[in-house]
Design brief:
Rossmann fold; 2 domains; 5-stranded parallel β-sheet; 44% helix
Length: 210
């Protein structure tokens, strides 16, 4: 393996559903948070099953948030509310990135929605994102996972064949697309993201963090 390729939201960046637990909003909104909440979330179940799209899901949740809290109802507004502090990144994934670099591996991102969801927010200029050798953002290229061209674009940016790249994502359909493209793929379960990090370390032959 010669490279680590990461989704950003849900993998490096803690997911919106995790952040929602501490959001200042009514419980009928904050308790519906994918597989992590106490209330059912059938719309997210549809995303996980491939019947719905992640962008449409978050657009609907943003409209709901705006209606409840008196905002504009846009996705960037909701994301600004969710990511309002300095600790939104998973430390274990930052450590994985740093260890991969120390081992001489390339580290890149393949994300659908960084610019679309976060715009010019401080988060998009965070130094953690500067650790990537390259970021391929579908909201810039216009090609979203699981379109095969999204993975091809990331591999072109890396200059590597798919079989030499370990890819992590938290959406099953995106993982299926990556496997079809030949990437060595690890699906991140938001109920236990550290398990996926450990699997990636094994695949990349990186010593576990102390």
């Amino acid at each position: 393996m010669r490279a680590l390729l990461l989704d950003i939201g849900g993998v490096l960046l803690t997911s919106g559903h995790e952040r929602m637990a501490s959001l200042a909003a009514p419980p009928e909104f904050t308790e519906v948070r994918g597989v992590l909440g106490p209330r059912p979330d059938p719309a997210w179940d549809d995303v996980l099953a491939g019947r719905g799209r992640e962008r449409a899901y978050w657009a609907a949740r943003a409209a709901e948030y705006g209606a409840l809290c008196g905002g504009t109802g846009t996705v960037p507004e909701l994301m600004d509310a969710l990511y309002d502090d300095d600790g939104p990144f998973r430390p274990e994934v930052i450590a994985l990135m740093d260890d991969a670099h120390r081992a001489g591996l390339a580290v890149a991102a393949l994300t659908n929605d960084l610019a679309a969801f976060h715009g010019d927010a401080d988060l998009t200029r965070h130094p953690v994102l500067g650790r990537f050798d390259t970021i391929v953002d579908g909201s810039v290229t216009g090609v979203l996972k699981p379109d095969p061209r999204a993975y091809a674009g990331a591999l072109h940016a890396l200059g590597l064949p798919a079989g030499e790249v370990v890819f992590l994502d938290d959406i099953p359909g995106n993982c299926a697309g990556a496997r079809d493209a030949g990437l060595v793929t690890v699906e991140v379960d938001l109920r236990d993201p550290s398990a996926a990090v450990g699997r990636a370390r094994d695949l990349l032959a990186l010593r576990a963090a102390a």
